[in-house]
Description:
Helices cover 66% and strands 4% of the residues. It has helices at residues 20-43, 55-62, 66-78, 99-112, 117-138, 141-155, 166-174, 178-204, 210-228, 232-250, and strands spanning 51-53, 82-85, 91-94. The protein has a three-stranded antiparallel β-sheet. Strand 2 (82-85) and strand 3 (91-94) form a beta hairpin. The termini are far apart. Residues 1-8, 12-18 and 253-257 have low confidence and may be disordered.
Amino acid sequence: MNTEDLALDGTAYTAPAFTSQDADRAPKLAERLAAKVEQEILRSGWPVGEVIGNEPELITRFGVSRAIFREAVRILENHGVVEMRRGPGGGLVITSPDGGAITQAAALYLAYKGASTASLLETRLALEVSCAERAAQKIDEAGIKRLRNVLRTEAARERPWHHSHELHNEIASIAANPVFELFVDVLLSLTERHLRRLVDNMVATGADPRDLIEESRRAHHAIVEAIVGGDAALARHRMQRHIEGIQPYLLRPNGAF
């Protein structure tokens, strides 16, 4: 059997004729097919690990050429929606999107667009005060343990001037709103880069950043206590005061990341 007669998953396959007209339409058709598959996965409840079918079956089902099908698979794999597994029992398998890759891509895009520090902090303020409020409303024993663990990790950090935004991510997670969680993560990744440069510059010039970091940690403890106590209004207030408090350190005229 010629290797051209093998599908991506190793099953036997004879490709239909592929014309120059098909080549002209291939990118658009592949995008449409990828969108169709994504919609089907969404409607099915995104069953991670389920095999949709092998290559010959799916080509027949969707009525496309192998080239168009493979381009659609490439698009879907780039989106983190599926992967093609080879061998017996293989096929197109539903996967779980990589949240870290999505966050990184969004952060890079905002950096490319020159998102200003002021716009970043303004958006963080709008999102994170709501996260703190929701976290206080939804906190349970498991959430309390997670927050306490983050505080202990911060206190035990080997280099105390290496600040972390892990607590903010944890609060967004406890708030149980995946939209908040994603966008807070994006904004924090940009803030982290800027804050690390600021602290590194302070250290390089002989300035001591410990007061800045210690002030932030005290704010973290105060926020956690409000959330653990279930006081939504106080949690909201303390988060707002914390973010507003770091603005003088991070804001620069027309500054961008």
